[in-house]
Amino acid sequence: MNKKTVLATLLVGVSLSISAQINRTWDFENTTQAVGEVKNVANVPGVVGNAAVFDGYTSDWEEKGIAGVQKTLFVEAWIAPLDYSFNVSAIVNQQNEQNQGFLFGINHNGQLVATFYVGGEPKTCVSEESAPWLKWSHVAMAYEEGKGIQLFLNGVAVKSLPFTEKPDFCADCPLVIGKTQIMDTPAYTERTTSRAVKSWMRFNGWIDELRITDKIPVAKTLQKQVTSIGKAGVQVLETPQMPSADIPQGPFGAYYTRLRYTDGWENLWKVSDHADVVVRFPDSPVKYVFWRGTGYIPAIVSENNIWMTDQSLENWGSGECYEVMGDKQCRYSHVRIIESTPARVVIHWRYALAGIHHQIMYEDATGWGDWADEYWTIYPDGVGIRKQILHSDHYKEDQGVGYQFQETILFNQPGTKPQDNLNMEAIQFSDMEGHTASYSWEKGAPEKFTGPAFQPIQLINIKAKYKPFSIFSPDRICKVFDFGWVEGYSTFPCWNHWPVSQIRSDGRNATSPDKPSHTSLTDTSGDVQILEYGPNNTVLVRQMIGMTTEPIKTLLPLARSWNNPPAVKIEGKGYEYKGYDKYQRAYLIEGDKTNSNESLQLTVQASESAPVQNIAFVIENWNHQSIEVTIDGKKAESGKGFESGYIQTLESSKIVLWLPVTSVRPVSITVK
C-alpha cells in the first residue's frame, strides 16, 4: 500500500458514519487538476506525492466556491511557509469585500487564523502558536454551528472561539488558494501614507493535501493521521539569504553580475544578467554590493555575510519618506561602473528622492524634482569614499529641514534579528583627538550620545571579525535613531518594508525574522549636517567607509590623512599641483598637454598630525600606459609597491596611481 493510499484510507476514517455532503480535495499532483484558473504555481515533492509551490508574489489558484455548507465545515492542509506575509495570507478562502464568507490562513507571525462573517462582522480566531516557517506543519480549522471555531496545529487543538450565530458562507464567492481575496494594510505599519495603501497578502511556500469537508474528525483520529504521515516539523526549505556569501575573493575590481534571491522574487524583475555590481578584493573577504534588492543602496559586507549600509539621501519633511527605499522597482535608481583598474574603482549611483507611489520630491511642471548623484571611489585597501551630490532647487529655502544625508543602517538576513548581528554595545565613537565612547542598546536605544562632543569616527560592533567603520568631517555630530522597535522582539529598531520587499510602504516594523530587515542606529540631518554648496543648486557631502579588524583608535591615522592631508611639493617643470580632493581621496596633478611626460618628482610632507595612510594620485594628460615609480629612492614593483590605471577619455588621458605607503615623515616619489 503506497503513501497516497494510506492517506486516503485515513481521510475516510475521519468521517462520521453519515457520508459527507461536501468533500473537496487538492492533492496538487499537478496544476491541471484545477477546474478554475491557475497561474504561476509549480510542483515539488510534498508530504505525499507532489505539493504546490506558491511564490508569494504572482501565484493564483481560483475555483468555483463551495455551496451547501450547513452546520459544519472542516479545512485541513499541510503547509511549509518560506516566509510569512505582512498580514493574514489565506491558505484557502471564500469571501468578498461585503464581509461574507470564510478564511483559513496564517498571519504575519505564522499564527493560524480563521475568520467567518456573521451579519457582516468578522468572527476571528487566532492561535497563540505559530506554524514554523521552512518546515511542514499540519494545520486545520473546524467550524460547528452553536459552538464556533476551533484551530488545530499538527493534530492538536490550540485555540477556540465560541459563538452561536450562523455565518454567511457566501456560496457565490470564488474559492481562492494561496491568496487573501481582500487587500489589506500590512500589520505594524508606521505612517499615515503607508497605512492608506492596501496590498495583496499571498502565501509564500508549499501547500499539500488540502481538503474541505463538512465532517469534523474526532481528535484522536486527526492526531493519528498527522502522526502516520510523519512529516510534522520536517524542514524542507532553506532560509533565503541576501546574495553575497557565494561571491569569491579574487582580483580587485568592479564586476557586473546578477545577484539572485528567491525564484519568486527574481521572476518579477525585467532585467538582464548584468543588473548588479560587486566590488571585491584578492586579500580580504569584504565586498561592496550594489544590488537591486536594496534599490542599489550600496552595502559593505563582512566575511560572514552581514551587510552594512548608509541608505540614500532622504527628505521626510512632509511626513512621508522620499528616498530610494520607496523606489521598489529601481525605476529611478541605477548603478554603473565608471572606472575599474588595479588602482581603484569608481561607481556612479544615480537616483531620485522618490515616494512609494513613484512620485519625486518637489516634482515640478517639467517632471523634474530632487535627484542625486553619488560617486563611490574604492581603493585596493578596501576603503571607499562616498561623494553625495543633491540636485535640489529647494534645499536652501528649506534650510535643510527634512533632508537627511546619512543614516547608519544594518541589514538583517532572514532568520536573524538585530541582536543576532549586533552586539548590545553596538557603536563606538572617536573624535580626532582619540577620545572615545561606546553606547549600548541593551535596554533600548540610548537617549542621546553624550560624548565625545564630535563623532567623526564611528565603528559598528557587528558579530563578525571585520567590522564596518565610517569617517566624517572632524566636527560631525549625529543623533540616536530612537524609534522603530517592537517590545519583545528586539531592543533595536527593526523594519522589513525594505530591503527586498515589494509592498508600497515607507515604514513597517518587523515582528518576525522571516524576511530581510534593517536596523537604524544613527542619523545626521538638518542644521548639523556638514556640507558644501556647489554650482547649479547642488549640495555636496562626503564620507569614508570601510571595514577593519582593529580597535577604533587605529583608525585615527586614516582619519587624519583624509581630514588633514599632508601637503605635496612638486619639483620640475610640466606639472601643476591642483590640490587634494577629499571626495576622491586623491592628490590631483595636471600635466602639460604639450610635454612628453617627463619625470614627475614630488614630496608628500607627512607628519604625525598629517600622516600618509596609502596615497592616490590622479595625473591628467599622462600619455603613456607604462609607468615606473620610485619611493624614497627605491624602485617599487608594479602589483606590490604600486598599482596604476590608465584611462583614456574623449578629450585626454589620465593615470591613477595607488601607493600602499604609510608614514609620518616626508615621502619622496618619482614617477616616469
Automatic annotation (TrEMBL):
Signal sequence interval, chain numbering: 1-20
One BP term from GO: carbohydrate metabolic process
InterPro entries for the chain: ConA-like_dom_sf (IPR013320)
Species of origin: Candidatus Ordinivivax streblomastigis
GO molecular function (one): hydrolase activity, hydrolyzing O-glycosyl compounds
Keywords linked to the UniProt accession: Signal
Name under which the protein is recorded: LamG domain-containing protein
Transmembrane segments annotated in the record for this chain: none
